[in-house]
Design a protein that fits this description.
This protein is mainly alpha-helical. The chain contains 13 helices and 8 strands. The radius of gyration is 28 Å and the shape is elongated.
């Protein structure tokens, strides 16, 4: 049960149940989540969103293992394992008198800390691939993977928004991509929905995302490649052979950069 998704006026009934006629709209008796979980486990997500009144009732249940439904007269003893989770700083809420300290220590008999996305760089590709599959279904797209530069960028980001930020970024990139998610799809400027390919724009965007130095270097290197090649082709009026001579590279190198950066340059 997501404690933050249920209105405060209904959460007592959701947790502990209610009897018919106990309040307006209670046309029948209804067991609460604790009763339904009897003999098993209940998972209370976003536990920090409970009101102080509900925290008191929850503490009473954890101490006594009995529930009184709303409007009920008979207490019912239950055998329920309670698992709770939060992304809030409960100790800070305790200091601000927003969370009961005794409830915290009652819940905190055994703690499992989930590492942030920043600490799971080795798992980045698996998360990204999962979200890509989901985005393909939702958007009716057929994007089948990521370029190496895109994966490097994802691994180097500072994910302040954690997993939700990654999911949103992948969905937006999937919308923009055709077959493969490239670096520019991940660094899109949300203000105009166009890739920000200027050096200054890319650098500013990369810094705002908290990229590592290696990831920033990759962003700048690609942007520089694109701009220099486009400039050389413009100067040579699209003549790739002349552009290669001006750039001091061979045709194979130009072809490789064109393919790697998906420049879609006109054939000459």
């Amino acid at each position: 049960m997501d404690c933050g998704a249920i209105p405060p006026t209904l959460i007592e009934s959701e947790l502990f149940g209610h009897e018919k006629g106990s309040f307006t709209g209670a046309f029948r008796s209804k067991p609460g989540r604790f009763q339904l979980a009897n003999g098993g486990t209940i998972f209370l997500d976003e536990i920090g969103n409970l009101s102080l009144e509900m925290q008191t009732r929850l503490l009473g249940f954890l101490e006594e293992r009995v529930v009184n439904s709303v409007g009920g007269v008979n207490a019912v003893r239950l055998d329920v394992r309670v698992v709770s989770a939060t992304n809030a700083d409960l100790m800070d809420q305790i200091r601000r008198y927003q969370f009961r300290e005794d409830l915290f220590y009652r819940l905190n008999e055994f703690e499992v800390t989930m590492p942030s996305l920043d600490e799971r760089a080795d798992d980045m590709y698996y998360f990204a691939a999962k979200f890509l599959m989901t985005a393909n279904v939702e958007l009716e797209k057929h994007v089948f993977g990521f370029s190496e530069e895109a994966i490097d960028l994802l691994s180097g980001c500072a994910w302040n928004g954690n997993i939700r930020e990654l999911k949103n970024m992948i969905k937006k990139a999937t919308l923009l991509a055709n077959d493969v998610i490239e670096l520019e799809h991940l660094l899109v400027d949300a203000r105009n929905q166009q890739p920000t390919l200027s050096l200054d724009g890319l650098l500013e965007n990369a810094l705002m995302k908290g990229l590592t130095l290696s990831a920033i270097n990759e962003v700048i290197r690609k942007a520089a490649d694109v701009k220099v090649i486009e400039h050389a082709l413009h100067q040579s009026q699209g003549n790739k052979s002349k552009a290669c001579r001006d750039l001091g590279i061979d045709y194979t190198t130009l072809f490789r950069k064109e393919k790697r950066h998906r420049l879609n340059l006109a054939k000459r």
